[in-house]
């Protein structure tokens, strides 16, 4: 099939590459000529493990191309996939101006029947709004399709080529059939439904996963007070197939380009139809507060006296294997440390440049190596669960620090191992092994 993908962000670029990989002829379009120039030269504008092997070296060159010329690529394609951003407006609603703009440009370029699919995360009703925009500008026939995307950054290629399910929202049976045909090499878990339900599935899925994370984080906070270990609790819960083991990793909360934006957008969507989504409001609130547990733990170590201390931070990206810093918990944690008069020594394997721009203030020294960042520090905070942190030589780390204080915001380290070191170690929801902790625990009376 001849496919145009509009937008070369994570979703657009990865989808385009994967459709080409399974044999289709794909043109990826973007307004950003610098980005298109990079892609044409075989360079990748985002950090995504595995993506380079598809783009560099021209492996898919015969069926994957990049252009800024939207009209001509629309004209030569049967399927147009819209994968532009829907960033949040100040009130949490999704900004649909890029979607509207794409619809207008597609309408102006159309010269015959097209299938127009939306992969961007959009509020319920957006596909209809898009169809109205197109209909008001052209008489050419088309079918609207909602094609929500569930890929995760860091494993985007794998997720796209091995999806748990593909949801296709379409009113036209012929278009739905073509979409099933297109995606059946990827999975047999194909679900065809109406457009509004498909749009809702995306928000509901992300809201549910965010709920699991906030839930386990609150359980972790309670574990700390009652002397239970959240890792064991999550494992025990996860063995119930109705609950499942994934997304029960306690830490400093979720960040990234989807969960924070989509949870707030769903609260707004519900509000528009006079429904207060109380549960989701709490999920967002719990998530916002959870990141500060690192600061509270640090304050406890230093009797509230953070000013003048040097704190090393490992991990700036919102999760490992990405350089994405959108809504990363590290931003507010580091900002609060700086406000408290702390000098921060920061390290991330790939996200430092992006984070530096995002933070936009002085007071942080940036390091190219984890050990270098920890050197001479009064304490070390781990904010992202990069694999390399767990591999570090703890003896060497301890020797390089001024004080051996380690606050592990992602439960990266094995607690029993830590007990054999001289570290004052604290993590999230795991107080049970701490020396003397059992005695300090309150006697629970019922
Ligand atoms: C998410 C969804 O998983 C994906 O389906 C959707 O298309 C986009 O949003 P992504 O944002 O790339 O993907 O990352 P994900 O791996 O889901 O992690 C999101 C955040 O939750 C990260 O900050 C991660 O650290 C945190 N998280 C995840 C936890 O704190 N605990 C967990 O158990 C899982």
From TrEMBL:
Question: What does the UniProt keyword field contain?
Answer: NAD, Oxidoreductase
The yes or no answer to whether the keyword Lipoprotein is present is no
SUPFAM superfamilies reported for this sequence: 6-phosphogluconate dehydrogenase C-terminal domain-like, NAD(P)-binding Rossmann-fold domains, UDP-glucose/GDP-mannose dehydrogenase C-terminal domain
What is catalyzed by this enzyme? UDP-alpha-D-glucose + 2 NAD(+) + H2O = UDP-alpha-D-glucuronate + 2 NADH + 3 H(+)
Q: Which organism is it from?
A: Paenibacillus chungangensis
Question: What Gene Ontology molecular-function terms does this entry list?
Answer: oxidoreductase activity
Where does the UDP-glucose/GDP-mannose dehydrogenase C-terminal domain lie?
312-415
Q: Which family does it belong to?
A: Belongs to the UDP-glucose/GDP-mannose dehydrogenase family.
Q: What EC number is given for this enzyme?
A: 1.1.1.22
A family per Pfam: UDPG_MGDP_dh_C
Protein's name in the database = UDP-glucose 6-dehydrogenase
NCBIfam families reported for this sequence: NDP-sugDHase
This protein's pathway: Nucleotide-sugar biosynthesis; UDP-alpha-D-glucuronate biosynthesis; UDP-alpha-D-glucuronate from UDP-alpha-D-glucose: step 1/1
